[in-house]
Each structure stands twice: as structure tokens, then as C-alpha cells.
Design brief:
The protein contains ten helices and three strands; from the N terminus they run ααααααααβββαα. It has helices spanning 9-35, 37-49, 52-75, 82-86, 91-109, 121-131, 143-163, 184-188, 226-233, 251-266, and strands spanning 192-194, 214-217, 223-224. A three-stranded antiparallel beta sheet has the order 1-2-3. The two termini are 19 Å apart.
Length: 274
């Protein structure tokens, strides 16, 4: 909420509209799954085929995509499109995670509801879905309710991932700050700039960056020799000077990076999620 308070009124309005559209899409997908016996069976079968770690990884990707959608409003010049917001997770994975989340929600509110044969699960879920205001929709609600819904979804996803212990030792970022590599796609896209003034040194090799030489520029504007920064970014996603984090392909590391973006935007001392 501290980060949201820094948005200008037009940005805040665009954010709530965008989140509402995102939740509407997810609501429609879940409705499609529950209304189609075939799609429900296929999705449930895929869900059952996943290990606990795979389920946690799936939820983590969903969490990462939703956090990424939010953080776009703090550093992008234009509002992210719905396509951009959903392109990070495949449709089958989206269906699977939505079904998983509603199963967890149902078990939490009605522990004995699923104590029946699998063939009856769809009917049970349909009844639950129609009788409750699932916070995945965001249809016809105020801005504050949309943000409450968003916070609720993020909290549920984080609790699921935390319960599986995948934030430490399960392939993610450990509490002792295990470093992860920068995303390969991000590294390839880094710009090469010409040094226009001599005298500055590369902090990695401590050698001067000579005038007229092409060097790598990170998003934080710090410059480094290409031969120095590439090996660095293969091991860690932070700037050697200011520790600004680049995106990473490690989903748990990316969640932590996105969370830090929100913490800095709000200028608050929010707790570290991972």
C-alpha cells in the first residue's frame, strides 16, 4: 500500500482498471474449466500429475507474473497490456493454478467438501464458485476492493509457496541471500555505449575505461567492461556498484526482486518475502 500511495491519480486509475481486467480474465478461465467436464478432467489430471514442488513452482510463476504486472506501473512510461500481463504463464499452467487455488480455498472454508469421489468434485466446485464471491473476479467492484482482491491473491500464493518450503533449498532464493544469475534475455539486450570521458575505472577489474571504448551499461547507468560484467551476471543479477537487481530466470529470485521494487517505490521497511 505504501508503494501504491506514490502513484499519481491517473496511474492509480490505470492500475485498478488493469488489475480488474486481469482478474476478469482469470474469473472467465475458471468458469470455463468448471463448466466443461472435459476441460475440468484434463486440468485436474494434470494437477494430480504434478509433485508438490512442481505445484509450488507453478504457483510461484503465477505470483511472479502478478507482481510483474504491478511493478510495471512504477517504472514503465505506458500502461502494460493485458497480453503482456498474461504472457508470462502458459494457458494450461494458468488453468492448473486457478484450479489449485480454488481447491485450496474450498478446503480451507469447507474442509469436508471434497470428501467425495473425484467425479463429484466438479459439481462441488461449481456450487462453491457460484455461491461465493471469488476474489479472482474483480467484476463490478470499487478500486479499493480490487486492490484488496489483489493483495489477497498475492498473500494466498505466497503462503502456498512458503508452506512447501521452496523459498529455501527448493530451487529458490534462500534466506541467507543465495545469489542467482541475471536473465539471459536481459543480458543480451544490455546496451553497448561509448566511453566519452576517460579516467573512470571498471569496479570489477579496477582498470580504466578508456575514452572511445565500447562498454556495457546496466539499467542503473553504471558502466563496466563487457569482459568483466558478463561473467559477473552469469553468477548474480545485481550491479557491482549499487546492487540494483536485474530480472532473473529463477522464479523465486524474481519474486524477491519484484518485491524489492515495491519496497523501494513505497520508501518503506516492508518485510522481505523470501
Amino acid at each position: 500500500m505504501s508503494a501504491l500511495s506514490t502513484l499519481a491519480p491517473p496511474q492509480f486509475s490505470d492500475l485498478t482498471t488493469s488489475l480488474s481486467s486481469l482478474f476478469c480474465r482469470h474469473h472467465c478461465r475458471l468458469s470455463s474449466i468448471l463448466s466443461s467436464p472435459t476441460l475440468f478432467t484434463l486440468t485436474l489430471h494434470h494437477l494430480h500429475s504434478l509433485s508438490l514442488h512442481q505445484k509450488s513452482l507453478l504457483v510461484a510463476r503465477y505470483l511472479s507474473s502478478t507482481l510483474s504486472h504491478l511493478t510495471c506501473f512504477f517504472h514503465a512510461k505506458t500502461t502494460p497490456s493485458l497480453h503482456t500481463a498474461t504472457a508470462m504463464i502458459k494457458l494450461r499452467d494458468l488453468d492448473t493454478v486457478l484450479l489449485l487455488l480454488i481447491l485450496c480455498e474450498l478446503r480451507q472454508h469447507e474442509p469436508k467438501a471434497l470428501e467425495t469421489s473425484l467425479s463429484n468434485w466438479r459439481v462441488v466446485l461449481c456450487n462453491y464458485f457460484s455461491d461465493t464471491m471469488l476474489k479472482l473476479s474483480g467484476l463490478g467492484v470499487s478500486s479499493s476492493e480490487v486492490l484488496i482482491t489483489y493483495n489477497d491473491v498475492v498473500t494466498k500464493c505466497w503462503r502456498f509457496v512458503s508452506a512447501m518450503g521452496c523459498g529455501s533449498g527448493g530451487g529458490g532464493v534462500e534466506k541467507d541471500g543465495r545469489e542467482v544469475a541475471a536473465s539471459a534475455a536481459v543480458v543480451v539486450a544490455l546496451p553497448s555505449v561509448e566511453v566519452n570521458r576517460g579516467g573512470n575505472e571498471c569496479v570489477i577489474c579496477k582498470e580504466e575505461m578508456r575514452e572511445g571504448r565500447d562498454v556495457c551499461q546496466l539499467p542503473c547507468d553504471h558502466l563496466f567492461h563487457w569482459k568483466c560484467i558478463l561473467p559477473w551476471l552469469r553468477k548474480r543479477n545485481s550491479c557491482p556498484c549499487c546492487r540494483h537487481r536485474l530480472p532473473t530466470d529463477d522464479v523465486f529470485g524474481e519474486i524477491e526482486r519484484l518485491w524489492e521494487v515495491l519496497v523501494k517505490a513505497g520508501g518503506s521497511n516492508l518485510p522481505v518475502m523470501l
